[in-house]
Write a structure and sequence with these properties.
Chains: A mainly alpha, B alpha/beta, C alpha/beta, D mainly alpha
Largest sheet of chain B: 10 strands, mixed
Largest sheet of chain A: 3 strands, antiparallel
Largest interface: A-B, 79 and 67 residues
Radius of gyration of chain A: 32 Å
Order of helices and strands of chain B: HEHEHEHEEHEHEEEEHEHEHEHHHEEEEH
Distance between the termini of chain A: 92 Å
Number of domains of chain B: 2
Shape of chain B: globular
Distance between the termini of chain B: 71 Å
Helix content of chain B: 25-40%
Shape of chain A: flat
Radius of gyration of chain B: 22 Å
Number of strands of chain A: 7
Structural class of chain A: mainly alpha
CATH class of the largest domain in chain A: Mainly Alpha
Strand order of the largest sheet of chain A: 1-2-3
Oligomer: heterotetramer
């Protein structure tokens, strides 16, 4: 007994190793459950497996070595010798990783594995040579051949150990709506244990039955879809509805199923739009909050806000490179290399680079802000509209500096692994990176509010903002407070840029994309008012998404949002929240 | 009085700037007209680099007709009227016999009248939408049937049945998608399987196919959700003509939403290796590209070209040039090929005169075996060349999946597929 | 018989974000009267003037001028009816000369096109000279108003009201920030105006108010606390409590 | 009280007009090309373009320097003028386009089989020329009427004009608008029956631009000397005082805004045939910002300053894009900062400062040169208690 268990495990491991490539090629990183192990064991550990494997291998060898015009036929014939070992070979062939080498006068097909290892097709042995000979050419494929391969690969996928792959394969088979596939699916239904795949098989059977000549079967399939309401069935049901010859009963059932699906799509879209609206709103908030301080509170029309933001993005990039393999820069014709820590990209420390770069982005942008304030802006507090000109000049210079230091191309920021992927709840996709940005927006907001409302510095900032000269008379060093406030606003912009690196691109002129939006958010919210900024960011974000989904046209949506803001300001000329003032010239 | 003196001062300043410096004997000046600042600098700077490399290479091996090439590099600053002004300056003041330049269609359109008026010669080396044929422009890059339709052929071969068209809101994507719409219909794809939306005018003519986003669009949540629904019933793919910048948020959103290249491959017509430098390629693995050249192309010409170019970059004396992490890509190689095509034509004509060079180019005998294979300039001002389909790898290179041999360019495609 | 008032405000209420700046005020002003409004900071004095001149709209209540409702009119429309206002901080055109300031204040057509084709007439010149004389700025007629002293700016602003020939003048702290001598002159100026014009004066300076010897309205927390002669008001215990007791502080904060 | 143009200014304008309108064209057409005084076609064309931009700058200054309205969307009106006139030029191409059709190429391509109705009147030169004025004027009037009626001012006004031009820019990118999408209009062939790119036509366009610039200058200069001009500047300095002096400030602003838009439209209509292209990128917010910079560099509050600024900055750019391609944005950016910091009144201010040293000052200069008063600020320095409360929320 013990012997048997050990034996089975050994076998199991060898199979597992064999499937490894297959797993990776399907980018399926789902952990196999214990159930799966049992399944694999049951399926392939049978006594005649060796035999079937070798016959499959010889069949594909024959196909590979056959003349080109015969290959498609022979590949299709592999259906009689289906075995999992065929998968990696066919895929390698398709992708140009199959070579025929002349080994001691014998033509020997080998495949190149993703780790560049070479493996014999004949018996899966690794070749001792590390590199392909110079003259090796991958075996060509034609369209016809690739179609044949696809069919075999699809059939193989039906027996794949990964339930996800099986689920997809089953659905794909169903989508073809070929009545001849029904027996296969019925057989699979008996064998299948995984609940999700079982449902998929039922869906697939119903999909095919939609094509059935028998009205009752058709109606049964339709009522199945009425209950399940899967979005993928929509096209097929639409096809039925488009057919004018169907009986009223079928039409009725089809209509019902269609309604159920449309209802599902509606709710998916509805909740999706809500989430996307909040997500876009929080992006806008993050982008605008720094501006709400430098422009809203301090009155500096900071056209360089976008560029200060992008400094944050570049910071993330630099930190990412320093954690990894280092960074080579060549500003103004000098090249130099910054050595990296060489951390393993999978390690926790490397994965934390993004979190670590956030405070650094804040600091660096804040320092740049401080320099700008001390060097230029401080002379312009009496002439706020001229800050627009000066900061625009700054923005031109910064853009060109980015270009000269980091090159004209955008820089690639890779999101850490824990921020890639998404929650999917009932079809509503919620990406981790977006959830993170929403969360970050909230944190930034609370932090800003605490700083302004609950700290002595915040008190000073508010004092200086409200009445510079009085504050100065009361012994407040207004210069210092201004510098700190501007630095704080710039720092927030830097954090925004760092967060944007998760969602979009960072490049020399990226800042320009956000500047109009940022100003609109602040102006709509009411200049000098954080609560208004929050409300207007979320409002614009949601409105934009609603218009996008209802007009199916992002451009017109954006135009309408802009026009809407213009009209809204007719009604409330100083934004959602107004600070009233009673001195004459500030009305 | 002050104004007058100022204006005359300015006039003198302009004169001083544009009066050519005393040239040595046997020099031919050629114009390079690309955006080195502004939004398009991201793509166009690389073309300037490769052009300067080609000139150096030619100068080293004796020049053209015994003349050394002296490039006049001009910054179009992503500003289209400025492009026209600079083209005028190159042709009227510097009297260059040839200009290599432009990236966007609109920049080409803005300089076109200038070239026609002054009978200049422009080599344009970026894939474009066709529907244009100027006697003064030679188009050395991919026409729509050398890029987009082969890509569709490949996808059809792979059994794709639903096509989602997505692009930036400007003329290249719009035109390409209209042509593709006709092409797909002619291949028997039902119109409801073409995603992104159709817009018709009051008479029912389709005036726009596909989904368009404004330049610099960053929020693709809604569009990716739509693609996910579109792809739910299987065998779908996306034909992506989004321009430069916006690809990053698109692919980030696409990857994060769980859509894979297996399920729904994206074939991008505006993304080459050069753009990949600024994309997180992790998110693009398995997606497709279609170009007349891939850096991974394994030919002796390409190997030599890459070696020489990277060697040249190390020492090139060009302000602000990037020396690190450089790659080569189709527009770069086709720019490079343009220079050699021009050289060949000049040598055949035995003169720099535009009319003679044009006649030589139109003879159909001007060829260049370049890094991308053989380029033949045809009478229709476009080049015949190979087209490749490639799959993105994690290192930002393409793995070549398919090669279409010596595709004959056809600039005017609209309306041709459905008539057949 | 109901008396014919020049300005009547009834049931006037205005609140800002829940804070009642003006709370159900009834206010009657006779033709030719000189009325002083006093009250501590935040009592609603300036808001009251804002309501009359159309700068803010009341939440409820009506204002009538010569029997015509003016509650819904815009600032310039109210002004054209003959209500002029001088602001707390001098509000003149700093880059224009004193002469130009008065020219812009002159009674006459106010439309865009009439201003384009306007040619200054000799009667207008005379009128300006007259006003310059009254406010004592004849010698400074051609220097930019921004160069005037604080007191001179106040006078110029009053001069602009005179040029307009406003019937009702609303003066918000005309003597604020003036030297004693200037205050004296201002007081005299106001007294000469009274009679020919109707005036509402907001002031903190008690000596100044006593000098005007006018009827006084005391505002407190948006309501009229009491009304009457200066002596009457001064002796009112409520007034002493809310206002006079805090007179010193109020005086130090010109921005009410 | 300078209600008339000073004699010296009239004299100077006459000389300048003579140089620009007579001398330069003669040097271009009647002097042999190898003569040192010869002015090339390229330079004449370039000057013509600069003058069009200078017209925009002058109109912008009329708004900003004199009325205190900073429009960050002035190039929108310029573009609309250009588009209106461009429509006419497109129709004049006739059958010389790629498709040899009566319709403009982009319409053929998009499958139009007849001209959209709103295009038809643009066959008439005069209709198009008039549209180049009234279309921008009408848009400005509508926008201004809404904005000024609800007292949108200062920064709010600026940001809204920016949003307006941005929205228009996005809209014009769309093919559905039947306005050529991203490519806009290009490849013009004829104007008034003459080949558009011939040196004679271009010279005529140059003269028209120079003349328009001088006339615009005269018109606006005269306006600023009238009582209207005084009210205008009064609005800039203290809008509320103007309201409380019985002037409907909104009407004055509306007039100035509309007039400036009409003038910018004229400039656009003259610019397009000279540069040969009009497309939506002219409506990008950064283009309008550039125009603001010309005014600031030249010196606002004087109408000749913006002319110097527009011509100077553009000449600098023409030079730098060929001589210093990689560094010119830095140069330009530094120039703005330096001007703002050290010459707040621009080149004109500097010139007047010099003139003041040489001659006796013709007009007194205030010690405080601040032109922007609080009315153009966001309301930040509010000394009032309710303000404090809302900040805490």
């Amino acid at each position: 007994m013990a012997q048997l268990i050990i034996n089975s495990f050994l076998k199991l491991f060898s199979y597992f190793a064999q499937f490894n490539y297959y797993f990776l090629s399907h980018r399926s990183l789902v952990l196999s459950s214990l159930l799966l192990f049992v399944l694999v064991f049951q399926l392939y550990a049978s006594s005649d497996d060796q035999l079937r494997q070798s016959s499959a291998r010889s069949a594909i060898l024959k196909a590979i070595l056959a003349p080109e015009e015969k290959q498609p036929e022979l590949v299709e014939a592999l259906a009689q010798n289906l075995h999992p070992v065929l998968g990696p070979i066919l895929e390698a062939w398709q992708k140009g990783d199959l070579f025929i080498l002349d080994l001691n006068g014998k033509l020997t097909p080998v495949i190149r594995l993703p780790d560049s290892q070479l493996q014999l097709v004949e018996n899966a042995q690794s070749l001792p040579i590390a590199q392909l000979p110079e003259n090796a050419r991958p075996l060509e494929t034609t369209g016809k051949l690739r179609r044949a391969m696809r069919i075999i690969l699809d059939q193989l996928a039906l027996a794949d150990p990964s339930p996800e792959i099986r689920e997809n394969a089953v659905l794909k088979l169903g989508m073809r709506q070929n009545l001849q596939s029904l027996p296969i699916l019925e057989r699979l239904k008996e064998q299948e244990e995984h609940p999700k795949v079982k449902i998929a098989i039922l869906d697939a059977i119903s999909l095919i039955n939609l094509n059935s000549p028998d009205t009752t079967t058709k109606i049964k399939a339709l009522s199945h879809f009425e209950a399940r309401a899967p979005i993928f069935a929509r096209d097929s049901i639409q096809k039925i509805l488009a057919d004018s010859s169907i009986s009223p009963a079928v039409r009725d059932a089809a209509n019902k199923a269609m309604k159920a699906i449309e209802r599902r799509i509606f709710w998916t879209d509805f909740f999706g739009t809500v989430f996307r609206g909040i997500s876009l709103g929080s992006v806008l908030l993050v982008v605008a909050i720094g501006l709400a301080i430098t422009f809203g509170l301090m009155g500096i029309i900071n056209m360089a806000h976008g560029e200060i933001m992008i400094i944050g993005g570049y910071t993330v990039f630099v930190v990412q490179c320093l954690f990894g393999t280092g960074l080579a820069l060549a500003p103004f014709g000098f090249s130099f290399n910054l050595p990296g820590l060489g951390l393993d990209p999978a390690s926790n420390l490397y994965q934390a680079y993004f979190l670590i770069s956030l405070p650094i982005a804040f600091l660096i942008s804040a320092i740049v802000g401080l320099i700008l304030e001390r060097g230029i802006i401080q002379f312009l507090y009496q002439r706020p509209l001229e800050t627009l000109l000066a900061t625009w000049g700054i923005s031109l210079i910064l853009q060109q500096l980015f270009r000269l230091i980091f090159g004209p191309a955008n820089i690639p920021v890779t999101a850490p692994a824990w921020l890639t992927g998404s929650y999917v709840v009932e079809g509503v996709i919620m990406n981790y990176n977006r959830i993170f940005v929403i969360f970050a927006a909230f944190v930034i907001l609370v932090a800003t509010w605490l700083l302004l409302a609950r700290t002595p510095l915040g008190l000073l900032i508010r004092a200086v903002i409200q009445d510079r000269s009085t504050a100065a008379c009361m012994g407040v060093s207004t210069g210092k407070v201004n510098s700190l406030t501007f630095a704080f606003g710039s720092g927030l912009a830097g954090v925004a840029g760092a967060l944007l690196a998760l969602l979009g691109n960072i490049g020399p002129s990226t800042g320009q994309t956000y500047i109009v939006d940022a100003f609109m958010v602040v102006v709509l919210g009411g200049v000098g008012n954080l609560a208004g900024t929050v409300l207007s960011a979320l409002g614009i974000g949601t409105l934009d998404q609603i218009l996008q989904i209802s007009l199916r046209n992002p451009v017109i949506g954006k135009v309408l949002v802009l026009v809407g803001i213009i009209l809204f300001l007719q009604w409330k000329p100083s934004g959602l929240f107004t600070i009233r003032s009673r001195s004459l010239d500030e009305g | 009085m002050k104004i007058k003196s100022l204006i005359s001062f300015l006039a003198i300043a302009i004169f001083a700037a544009i009066i050519p410096s005393f040239a040595a004997d046997k020099v031919v000046k050629v114009g390079v007209l690309h955006s080195l600042s502004g939004t398009m600098a991201i793509s166009e700077t690389s073309l300037r680099d490769v052009l300067l490399f080609a000139f150096d290479e030619i100068n080293k091996s004796g020049g053209v007709l015994g003349h050394k090439i002296e490039p006049i590099v001009v910054d179009g600053a992503s500003n289209w009227p400025l492009f026209a002004e600079k083209a005028k300056e190159l042709l009227e003041v510097h009297k260059v016999p040839v200009v290599f330049g432009c990236w966007t269609s609109v920049s080409r359109k803005s300089v076109l009248p200038v070239f026609e008026k002054n009978n200049g010669l422009l080599f344009y080396a970026v894939q474009y939408e066709g529907e244009e044929l100027s006697p003064n422009i030679f188009y050395t890059a991919e026409a729509v049937n050398q890029q987009a339709t082969p890509a569709v052929d490949y996808l059809l071969e792979m059994g794709r049945k639903k096509f989602y068209l997505l692009g930036s809101d400007y003329v290249y994507p719009q035109t390409t998608n209209l042509i593709l719409l006709e092409y797909l219909l002619s291949k028997g794809i039902p119109i409801e399987n073409i995603g992104g939306g159709l817009r018709k005018d009051s008479k029912g003519n389709v005036i726009s196919a596909g989904k368009y986003v404004p330049f610099g669009h960053t929020d693709f949540q809604q569009i990716v959700a739509e693609i996910k629904q579109f792809a739910a019933s299987g065998d779908a793919c996306v034909i992506n003509t989004i321009n430069g910048d916006s690809n990053v948020p698109f692919f980030k959103e696409f990857a994060a939403s769980g859509l894979t290249a297996e399920e729904c491959p994206v074939v991008s017509l505006s993304l080459s290796e050069d753009e990949f430098r600024s994309l997180p390629t992790k998110d693009l693995v398995g997606h497709l590209g279609a170009w007349a050249y891939f850096m991974s192309l394994d030919t002796p010409e390409n190997k030599k070209f890459k070696e020489n170019f990277f060697e040249w970059l190390k020492t090139a004396n060009v302000p602000g040039i990037e020396r690190q992490n450089r790659v080569t890509c189709s527009p770069m190689v086709l720019s490079y090929s343009s220079v050699y095509l021009w050289k060949a034509a000049v040598e055949k004509a035995g003169s720099f005169e535009v009319d003679k060079v044009r006649a030589a180019l139109e003879s159909g005998e001007i060829t260049f075996l370049g890094p991308n294979g053989l380029n033949t300039m045809l009478k229709n001002h476009h080049t015949k060349k190979n087209v490749y389909i490639g799959e993105t790898k994690a290192d930002g290179q393409f793995k070549i999946l398919r090669q279409f041999e010596q595709v004959v360019p056809e600039p005017f495609l609209k309306g041709t597929f459905l008539k057949k | 018989m109901k008396r014919e008032f020049l300005l009547v405000a009834e049931g006037l209420t205005k609140s800002f974000d829940g804070f009642k700046a003006i709370d159900n005020i009834n206010f009657y002003l006779d033709r030719g009267e000189l009325r002083t409004i006093i009250g501590p900071n935040g009592a609603g004095k300036s808001t009251f003037l804002d309501l009359i001149t159309g700068r803010t709209r009341p939440d409820s209540g009506t204002i009538t001028y010569r029997g015509n409702p003016i509650t819904r009119l815009r600032e310039y429309e109210i002004y054209r009816l003959g209500i002029g206002r001088k602001f707390q901080t001098p509000s003149i055109y700093a880059h224009h000369t004193v002469f130009e300031n008065l020219l812009l204040g002159l009674k006459g057509p106010r439309g865009v096109f009439s201003s384009i084709f306007h040619r200054i007439s000799s009667s207008e010149k005379n009128r300006i000279a007259e006003v310059l004389e009254i406010i004592g700025l004849t010698e400074k007629a051609h220097i930019p108003a921004g160069l005037l002293s604080h007191g001179q700016k106040q006078w110029l602003e009053i001069g602009m009201l005179l040029a307009q020939e406003a019937e009702l003048l609303l003066l918000d702290e005309p003597a604020a920030g003036m030297s004693d001598e200037e205050t004296e002159k201002t007081g005299n100026l106001l007294l000469t105006l009274a009679g020919g014009h109707t005036l509402i004066v907001i002031e903190h300076d008690m000596t100044f108010i006593r000098r005007l010897a006018s009827r006084v309205t005391v505002l407190h927390q948006g309501r009229i606390l009491c009304e009457g002669s200066f002596e009457h008001v001064q002796n009112d215990p409520r007034v002493q409590e809310v206002y006079l007791g805090r007179k010193h502080r109020a005086h130090n904060q010109p921005n009410s | 009280m300078s209600d008339r143009l000073p004699k010296v200014e009239i004299f100077f304008l006459l000389i300048l007009s003579a140089v620009l309108i007579f001398v330069i064209p003669i040097l271009n057409s009647a002097v042999p090309t190898d003569h040192p005084f010869y002015i090339s076609n390229y330079l004449v064309n370039l000057l013509g373009q600069y003058f069009c931009l200078a017209i925009v700058a002058v109109s912008l200054d009329f708004l900003w320097g004199y009325t205190g309205l900073l429009s960050l969307g002035q190039m929108l009106f310029f573009s609309l003028g250009g588009y209106a006139f461009g429509m006419h030029l497109m129709l004049m191409i006739g059958r010389l386009g790629q498709y040899k059709s009566d319709l403009p190429d982009f319409m053929v391509f998009l499958g139009y089989n007849k001209l959209p109705d709103f295009w038809v009147p643009f066959y008439s030169f005069w209709f198009a020329a008039a549209a180049a004025l009234w279309v921008p004027g009408l848009l400005a009037f509508l926008f201004g009427w809404l904005a000024f009626r609800s007292r949108i001012r200062g920064v709010y006004f600026s940001i809204l004009t920016q949003a307006l031009t941005y929205a228009a820019c996005l809209l014009f990118f769309r093919n559905e608008l039947s306005m050529g999408g991203n490519n806009g209009f290009t490849d013009f062939k004829f104007i008034l029956g003459k080949p558009i790119n011939s040196p004679d036509t271009q010279r005529a366009l140059y003269v028209a631009s120079a003349l328009s610039l001088i006339l615009t200058y005269l018109l606006l200069r005269t306006l600023t000397l009238t009582k209207f001009g005084k009210v205008q500047r009064a609005i800039r300095d203290s809008e509320n005082r103007v309201l409380f002096s019985g002037y409907a400030a909104a009407n004055y602003k509306l007039f100035a805004f509309t007039l400036a838009a009409v003038i910018s439209g004229l400039a656009g209509a003259l610019y397009v045939p000279q540069v040969g292209i009009i497309n939506p990128s002219q409506m990008e917010p950064s283009r309008s910002l550039e125009a603001v910079v010309w005014v600031a560099v030249g010196g606002r509050g004087t109408l000749y300053g913006p002319v110097i600024g527009a011509v100077g900055v553009n000449a600098l750019r023409s030079w730098a894009t060929i001589s210093l391609p990689a560094y010119w944005p830095i140069l330009l950016g530094s120039l703005f900062i330096l001007v703002v910091l050290f010459a707040p009144r621009g080149i004109a201010g500097f010139l007047e400062f010099l003139a003041g040293k040489v001659l006796t000052a013709s007009r007194p200069i205030l010690p405080n040169t601040q032109i922007f008063t609080n009315s153009s600020l966001p309301k930040t320095s509010s000394p009032n208690p309710s303000g404090q409360e809302s900040q805490k929320t």
